[in-house]
Design a protein that fits this description.
The structure is a homodimer. Chain A is mostly helical. Chain A has four helices and three strands. A three-stranded antiparallel beta sheet of chain A has the order 1-3-2. The longest helix of chain A is centred in the last third of the chain and has 24 residues. The structure holds a DNA duplex.
Chain lengths: 106, 106
Amino acid sequence: MPRQRDRVGWAEPALLILASLADGPKHGYAITKDVEEQTSIKLGPGTLYAAIARLEESGLIAPLDEDERRRPYRITAEGQTVLDDKLRAMARFARTGLTRLGVANA
Amino acid sequence: MPRQRDRVGWAEPALLILASLADGPKHGYAITKDVEEQTSIKLGPGTLYAAIARLEESGLIAPLDEDERRRPYRITAEGQTVLDDKLRAMARFARTGLTRLGVANA
DNA sequence: GATCACTGCTACGTACTACGTAGTATCGTA
DNA sequence: TACGATACTACGTAGTACGTAGCAGTGATC
């Protein structure tokens, strides 16, 4: 799916959300803001809440007590494991790619 | 899109292809093999050639002389720029995420 | 005290695209 | 000559990213 400006996306919403929750529990809107700060990627509400629902269904995140205006979520142990795996793979991939590009600091 | 085993994908085919071509020109099948070696991600032909077509259309990769059995491609200067940006963003994101997870080597 | 901006989420439609499977053809090799 | 690897085309399905619109509560400002 055409991501942001060019067609080459590097992270899917689910991963962005997981990484955001790795910092501590947050509700949807706070996740959007955090992701935007960290990555400059703006998740629209449609994208965000759909992805959250799928993550919850997969058991990678879990809902907390909801103050009827906010729906906070936390990352589960399984979510942490998955996230850890993915981030390591990403880091490895990025390092290799930068090396291939001939970038010094890789 | 459900990626591989779990639902949390970390790299889109377009990026995998770009990174593979950063190493030098390759034809489709060789890209599949390279990506699989580097990332354990298997790109089916449908996914692969569709993504290649889009990358070519975007000017991020360009075709080379085709030996009628193989269609080799190279990464363009614009492709290198885009790839460099994405990989740096990925590396930053992965580092931040691992830190948040409390991982030592981040 | 009406308007405006921000917070926070729901609902919905569209189009993209990841993925799998089947099929075609060439080549090497045992 | 039959099998496996190489190399790509064609096609259908369903998942999902993304945008827009809408609704509601909370301030701040004038």
